[in-house]
Design goal:
The complex is a heterodimer. By secondary structure, chain A is of the alpha+beta class. Chain A has helices at residues 17-28, 53-67; strands at residues 2-10, 41-47, 73-81. Helix content of chain A is 33%, strand content 30%. Chain A has a three-stranded antiparallel beta sheet, with helices on one face. Classes of the chains: A alpha+beta, B alpha/beta.
Chain lengths: 82, 230
């Protein structure tokens, strides 16, 4: 069994209220020195058999079609895992 | 006159939308998300709620429901379509409308009586309003911030496609205080506030505000009158 990992992030110009909430919580717990937090999504897609280039191409298409909304998000990684 | 109201798993306001359709004088036709056809309706409302639990992104899964295929084709062919709240999110995910709806900038769910100004009145859903008319209808959302790139926003403004704008304090961080937009032809309208909750006396925003609580009804009478005279 193979696995493909897809990572999606909000575009830099889109406000990330969740990341800001995390950023504000960090110093309250003593984690100082962080100037920005952006929160994204990680998808793990398992396939039967090897992760071929063909599989990767299909995952890239799925990432652009369903897993991300190109208006507000970027697909930052589509990678074989494990 | 038959107006379809789509029910997705997780839709909340489909019953209210159907009631608004009936009070406006049309027959409300329930459309199921699994339907592969629109049963010959004259217009469609995509109601509010949390379709598919808002999983992935609001409206992202609903976009691929079987009923959306004929709906997108019909909308591109001129069928009047109104997306309210989650329905607006579905229309953006379907690329029938530009932009996207993201989490409110203040991170809190907002639920309030919301003043709006109706800016485009030549759509089938707003023809019974006067340009610039102030109305008050409920607003309730967690991810109601309308965003788009500057070029798209300029296009929307330049082509007069901003249908409604928030008046007063911006409730959710929407760019340029945009509460609703239309496609270029005007037949597809997306709206974050809820006109279907302001259609009967005492049930809409407080009548003491002077509005009577009926400010939302004309979204529905507009389309009925337009279809009758067509």
């Amino acid at each position: 069994m193979g696995r493909v990992v897809v990572e999606v992030m909000l575009k830099p110009e889109i406000l990330d209220p969740q990341g800001q909430a995390v950023l504000n919580a960090l110093p309250r717990l003593g984690f100082d020195g962080f100037s920005s937090v952006r929160q994204g999504k990680r998808f793990e897609l398992d396939v039967d058999g090897e992760v071929t280039d063909e599989v990767l191409a299909r995952v890239r298409e799925a990432a652009a079609t369903l897993l991300s909304n190109p208006v507000i998000e970027d697909v930052v990684a589509v990678e074989r895992a494990g | 006159m038959r107006i379809g109201v789509v029910t997705f798993p997780g839709s909340l306001d489909d019953r209210d939308a159907a009631r608004a359709v009936r009070l406006a004088g049309a027959e409300a036709v329930s459309l199921w998300h699994g339907d592969a056809e629109l049963h010959g309706v004259d217009a469609v409302v995509l109601p509010g709620g949390f379709s598919y639990g808002d999983y992935l992104r609001c409206g992202a899964i609903a976009r691929f429901a079987p009923v959306m295929r004929p709906l997108v084709d019909a909308a591109n062919g001129g069928l009047p379509v109104l997306g309210i709240c989650n329905g607006f999110q579905v229309l953006c995910e379907s690329h029938l409308l530009p932009g996207a709806l993201v989490r409110n900038d203040h991170r809190k769910f907002v639920c309030r009586d919301q003043p709006l100004s109706i800016e485009r009145t030549d759509t089938p859903w707003t023809s019974a309003y006067a340009p610039g008319e102030r109305v008050v209808v409920p607003l309730k959302n967690g991810e109601g911030g309308f965003v788009a790139d500057e070029r798209t926003l300029d296009e929307l403004e330049g082509e007069g496609r901003v249908v409604a704008r928030y008046v007063g304090e911006n409730p959710n961080g929407s760019y340029r205080a945009i509460a609703g937009i239309s496609n270029a032809a005007g037949n597809v309208v997306g709206l974050m506030p809820h006109p279907e909750h302001a259609i009967e006396p005492l049930f809409g925003p407080d009548p003491r505000s002077g509005t009577g609580g009926l400010d939302g009804l004309r979204f529905f009478t507009s389309v009925v009158e337009g279809l009758v005279s067509a």
